[in-house]
Design goal:
Layout: E1 3-6, H1 11-19, E2 22-25, H2 35-45, E3 49-52, H3 66-87, E4 91-96, H4 119-133, E5 138-143, E6 146-147, H5 154-164, E7 167-171, E8 175-176, E9 179-180, H6 181-197, E10 203-206, E11 213-214, H7 215-226, E12 231-235, H8 255-261, H9 268-283
Parallel strand pairs: 1-2, 1-3, 3-4, 4-5, 5-10, 6-9, 7-12
Antiparallel strand pairs: 8-11
The structure holds NADPH dihydro-nicotinamide-adenine-dinucleotide phosphate and dtdp-4-keto-L-rhamnose.
Length: 284
């Protein structure tokens, strides 16, 4: 199977590249701010499947740049889906827990009503809708709290701050599943391969690491595994004001993904060890 990936430098895109057998397009090759250029790239390369791993992911900055974020996260995936429909090939598009409002404590199912709290979530929801509206074969894989040794993520932020400070105040009322980028990459490839032969398996799917945890407890796990003696103090979200509101309940019900594709929720605690080792090796 020849797979075209949008994104090359991002967390998931890097892991797709590492898995091998894919062609990755970076921003210079296909800028998502120009949706028609993305469609043209698909028509020119004529792959057997497309995975979109590129996105505007700066949650707070999206509040001041919603139009551009919506072009990148909404219109560009829509144009990709149109080109894929024309060629009769599947598109796997990655989305986020931030399409949900985060009320309650029950894990969100793929069919649950959305209600994004901020511009990033709204722009990602626009992408989901545009992909579905194009009329081709598609899967939207919603994931959460992506972590890897590369790019910018919570693990790397905690390692940096934890080495500088004795104490960190971290929100304890936002709960979700940290998800290793490597597992997302493997899931996207498996879904693309399946949709090529079984297009009726398309739709919205959830895929998040287990167990669910608060950001504060995740920070404690990072410090414990990295051997960093930084104390973590639980705080409510209200005590950590940010331009964009985040959902309190980011739990994703991933049972449909396991039932249809055999993809189980990965245990982030095992992957965290590998990620920390990889970060440490790059430092020395
Ligand atoms: N990070 C997370 O915690 C979560 C991410 N997701 C979703 O998962 C997917 C992958 O995220 P992740 O790997 O973390 O992303 P990263 O933030 O690590 O990387 C984003 C990627 O998108 C590329 N990109 C951004 N803007 C453009 C543009 N205008 N044209 C072309 N490429 C662009 C970046 O390229 P460049 O280096 O040139 O900027 C980079 O390769 C996204 O759809 C995201 O919404 C879902 C849940 C959680
Ligand atoms: C640095 C820091 C953050 N926090 C809080 C802020 C926030 O609520 C939470 C996580 O911070 P981040 O800025 O890393 O998280 P954020 O950028 O909101 O992460 C999100 O990214 C997008 C792309 C997604 O799709 C989501 O699934 C999610 O992973 O931790 C603290 O409480 N204390 C701190 O010292």
């Amino acid at each position: 199977m020849t797979v075209l990936v949008f994104g090359r430098t991002g967390q998931v895109a890097r892991e797709l590249a590492r898995a091998g057998g894919v062609t990755c397009l970076d921003r210079a090759a296909a800028d998502l701010a120009d949706p028609q250029a993305c469609a043209a790239a698909i028509r020119a390369i004529r792959p057997q499947a497309v995975i979109n791993a590129a996105a505007w992911t700066a949650v707070d900055a999206a509040e001041d740049h919603e139009e551009l974020a919506t072009t990148i996260n909404g219109a560009a995936p829509g144009a990709m889906a149109g080109a894929c429909a024309d060629l009769g090939i599947p598109l796997v598009h990655i989305s986020t827990d931030y399409v949900f409002a985060g009320n309650g404590t029950a894990p969100w199912r793929p069919t649950d009503p959305t209600g994004p709290l901020g511009a990033y979530g709204r722009s990602k929801l626009a992408g989901e809708r545009a992909v579905a509206a194009a009329g081709g074969t598609w899967a939207v894989l919603r994931t959460s709290w992506v972590v890897s040794a590369h790019g910018s993520n919570f693990v790397k932020t905690m390692l940096r701050l934890g080495r500088e400070r004795d104490e960190l105040r971290v929100v304890a009322d936002q709960i979700g599943g940290p998800t290793p980028a490597r597992d997302i990459a493997a899931a996207c490839l498996k879904i693309a391969e399946t949709l090529r032969v079984e297009p009726d398996k398309g739709g919205i799917y959830h895929f998040a690491g287990a167990p669910d945890v608060s950001w504060a407890d995740f920070a404690r796990a990072i410090f414990a595994q990295a051997g960093i003696a930084c104390r973590v103090t639980d705080i409510p979200s209200a005590d950590y004001p940010t331009p964009a509101r985040r959902p309190l309940n980011s739990r994703l019900d991933c049972s449909r993904t396991e039932a249809v594709f055999g993809l189980k929720r990965p245990d982030w605690r095992a992957s965290l060890r590998d990620i920390l080792t990889e970060i440490e090796e790059a430092r020395t």
